[in-house]
Amino acid sequence: MVQLTTVLCKAYHGGHLTICLALSGCTNRPFYHIMAAHKCPRDGRFVEQLGSYDPMPNSHGEKLVALNLDRIQHWIGCGAHITKPVEELLGLSGFFPLHPIVITNAERLRWKQAQEVLLAAQKTDTEATETKEN
Amino acid sequence: MLRALRTLGARPLDRPPAHFLLLARGRKTRHDPPAKSKIGRVATPPAVDPAEFFVLTERYRQYRQTVRALRYEFVTEVRRKAHEARAGVLAERKALQDAAEHRELMAWNQAENQRLHELRMARLRQEAREQERRQAEEAAREAREAEAWAQLKEREVLQLQEDAKNFITRENLEARVEEALDSPKSYNWAITREGLVVKPQHKGS
């Protein structure tokens, strides 16, 4: 798997405005705000807050994401760039098409789980044949 | 760092387990020299699966195409909104309404100014009349006072003329002295502090 991010991300962050995640919260408890900001520090000056993302699942096992789609559309119309995590969130929400990396990671996970199931099945088959021989 | 942590679950099985790397992560800064055990180490990137690579590039191409189209749509939407806000039908109607409202307000202001002007003129006329009345009264009062003063002075002059007839002059000095000496009136009395008159009763002079 070639690292494509460095090649592809050169085209990002060339414009004036970026829609990115700003980290807040405390130790062992991250919380992200989805911001429209210029080239400022991660938690510094921003133009507008467009939503939030809570990476820790809540009591129902959900990770909550809030997106102000109207304003996001406006800022993209004004020429804002979007970072990869925000693109992935927008893809999962349905506003954008699903990101290729999300699909690829899901495929790899499924392949790995299938391999594990296959290995477990093979191991039980070998154990069954060994007991039969004995 | 969290982005790298997310991709840990997707790494292939031949890489070392994740928790060993987690324990060592962040121990060295960028200025620390690499360890002696890493002298001949050549970092080899993970192997590329050609089929997956082809599928991934194809997916990226389609994704970028779709995102470009969406971005173009959003840009045209924003420009259309800006144009409509500047020179659209609603903006023109609003401009006309604003002009009409402005004219109405100016007319109302004019009417108010006229009304207040009328009131002010009436008040000024009333004040002028009051002033004239007060001045007339003042004049009348002063005239009366002057007349009273003149009459008083006239009376005093007449009184003095009357009294002057009884004055003692050089001509009737002798006659008056004789008359005073001959009169029975006696000035030989005293008065106490309480106001009692004390007359001599044939005791001394």
From TrEMBL, chain A:
Keywords: Ribonucleoprotein, Ribosomal protein. It holds the Pfam family Ribosomal_S16. Coiled coil: none annotated. The keyword Ribonucleoprotein applies. Belongs to the bacterial ribosomal protein bS16 family. PANTHER family: 30S RIBOSOMAL PROTEIN S16, SMALL RIBOSOMAL SUBUNIT PROTEIN BS16M. This is Small ribosomal subunit protein bS16m.
From TrEMBL, chain B:
Residues 114-156 form a coiled coil. Pfam families: MRP-S26. The keyword Ribonucleoprotein applies. Keywords: Coiled coil, Mitochondrion, Ribonucleoprotein, Ribosomal protein, Transit peptide. The keyword Cytoplasm does not apply. It is found in: Mitochondrion. InterPro entries: Ribosomal_mS26. Belongs to the mitochondrion-specific ribosomal protein mS26 family. PANTHER family: 28S RIBOSOMAL PROTEIN S26, MITOCHONDRIAL (PTHR21035), SMALL RIBOSOMAL SUBUNIT PROTEIN MS26 (PTHR21035:SF2). This is Small ribosomal subunit protein mS26. It comes from Rangifer tarandus platyrhynchus. The lineage of its organism: Eukaryota, Metazoa, Chordata, Craniata, Vertebrata.
